[in-house]
Amino acid sequence: MSSDARAHGDGVSFGPIAIPGAQVFYETSQTFALVNLKPVVPGHVLVCPRRSTPKFTDLSDEEISDLWRTVAVIQRALEREHDTSSSTLAIQDGPLAGQTVPHVHVHVLPRRVGDFARNDDVYDDLERWNADGSKALDDDRPPRSAEEMRAEADALRALF
Ligand code: AMP
């Protein structure tokens, strides 16, 4: 773990959602990263500012720097772990852009050959949440169990 990162402990707030510490695998003074309830691809995680605010444009320069520095640290580790050299990074910044959880979050998705029939279909899958946070009709992915998410977070924590 880097000198700026903290060991995992208490949970964090992800908008209105209380995320248990077991789901958080990386933290700095300004940023945390959590494993996803419904990953679009294996290794799809979320990186968030600690302060719960919906818009990227609400963040201070210091929060933006720490967020993107942390994204880079996590992206490098995920690409090594998933044996790839490509990732999709995405922010749905506001409800009209598809944001369902009103707390800035960068989606980090390691990409693999053939993971989608059309490469940009990844963005359709990122959209498969309704604006009120409920499941979209065409979303047949079950949410993962707390145990599955804990196991992934434990494995990811060991990478830093
Ligand atoms: P967006 O649609 O861009 O706001 O993305 C919301 C993301 O939050 C999706 O990737 C969801 O799978 C994820 N998500 C929603 N609830 C939880 C939760 N309790 N734990 C982890 N990830 C969540």
From TrEMBL:
Domain named HIT: residues: 10-118
Cofactor (UniProt): Mn(2+)
Record site: Important for induction of apoptosis: 123
Positions contributing to substrate binding: 36, 92, 98-101, 107
Reaction(s) catalysed by this chain's protein: P(1),P(3)-bis(5'-adenosyl) triphosphate + H2O = AMP + ADP + 2 H(+)
PROSITE patterns named among the record's database cross-references: HIT_1, HIT_2
Renumbered ranges of motif Histidine triad motif: 103-107
GO molecular function, one term: bis(5'-adenosyl)-triphosphatase activity
Alphabetical list of Pfam families matching this protein: HIT
Keywords: Hydrolase, Nucleotide-binding
EC numbers on record: 3.6.1.29
InterPro entries in the cross-refs: Bis(5'-adenosyl)-TPase_reg (IPR051884), FHIT (IPR039383), Histidine_triad_CS (IPR019808), HIT-like (IPR011146), HIT-like_sf (IPR036265)
Taxonomy, superkingdom: Eukaryota
Active site: 105 (tele-amp-histidine intermediate)
PANTHER family documented for this protein: BIS(5'-ADENOSYL)-TRIPHOSPHATASE
Protein's name according to its UniProt entry: Bis(5'-adenosyl)-triphosphatase
Record organism: Ostreococcus lucimarinus (strain CCE9901)
